[in-house]
Amino acid sequence: MFAKINTLRFRFVKSQLQTIYFSLLIIAFLLFFSYSVFQPVWLTLESIFLFLSLSIFVMTPVSVYVGFKYGTPFKERLEAISVLISALAKGRYSSRILDSETGDEIGQITVELNELANKMQEQVKSLQRMADEKSEYAQHAHIAATVEERQRIARDLHDAVSQQLFALTMMSEATVRIMDKDVGKAKGQIEEITNMALQAQTEMRALLLHLRPVHLSGESLKTGLYNLIEELQQKCQIDFHVDVENIGKLSDAKEEHLFRMIQESLSNILRHANATKVAINLKKKEHDIYLHITDNGDGFNVNEKLVNKTSYGLKTIKERCEELGGTFTVRSQKGEGTYISILIPQ
Ligand SMILES: Nc1ncnc2c1ncn2[C@@H]1O[C@H](COP(=O)(O)OP(=O)(O)OP(=O)(O)O)[C@@H](O)[C@H]1O
Ligand SMILES: [Mg+2]
Questions:
Q1: Residue 277's domain is classified under what CATH number?
Q2: Which of 2, 63, 78, 141 is surrounded by the fewest CB atoms within 10 Å?
């Protein structure tokens, strides 16, 4: 109730009344003072009381009316400002105040608020433009990445599987031709064909490993890793040894990156190493996560292969590792297998 009465118009009325009553108090004091000190004949006690009563009676409603009348436009202008602020807060940036009185302080605030609304409207437009451009760029990047990935798969299929299938066809034809003449030689060639087919199959699996969905699909890194190895174990003639020590809960991004690095390393082993044994060791030591992947395969010249512009696997592992603030080391020698070591701070 009091809060309601404490409005701007009420304050105007109050200040009008205060001025009137204070003035009447001073006039009354002066009249009573003159009456008691100078005692002029024209001044009687009755006339003083009559004057004061009449003044209060007339001036009170007049000052209420005047306070109310002058308070109303201020109230309306402040209400317009309040409406504009809440419209801006709700995102209606085209709202403005059409106030013709610009000379006083409220008019100044109105002008500044309109300018602020103009700026906000422009900024929102430029933000929307940027968002549109960003999604366009993202679309272009996505298309480019898809095309690049397709080219990579096509190249890999051509380099590996398609070449092997071609060789298999040639060898099979040759075997058929010599079958009647030299059974022993034909038998040897069939064994070679079997090995080659097995190798092509492994290549194909490695390529599919590349194409697998990148996510752990909600599984923990440990579960995802064991599932992946179990699947590979059934399909490849490689002896996998996995050791995951209590690594605790890692962030989703870290688990995802580690899983992808393991996938790429395994894909390399399947495609290039001719390994019979692979060991994966994942452990936590103090505040760091260690990942070691070792194979007993053919090995390679690291310095030579790391600068190869058309290979991405090892470079991607390195980049992922650096993104997590870690370090990546690969040691390998022809005929002596490969050792990958990854350290990531937790
Ligand atoms: N474990 C490994 N054993 C033997 N050679 C390997 C091994 N890992 C990598 N290499 C050699 O290093 C090269 C580079 O590997 P990288 O993963 O960067 O490229 P890639 O596998 O040839 O192609 P992609 O870009 O499809 O991964 C391979 O071509 C291979 O010769
Ligand atoms: Mg690779």
A1: 3.30.565.10
A2: 2
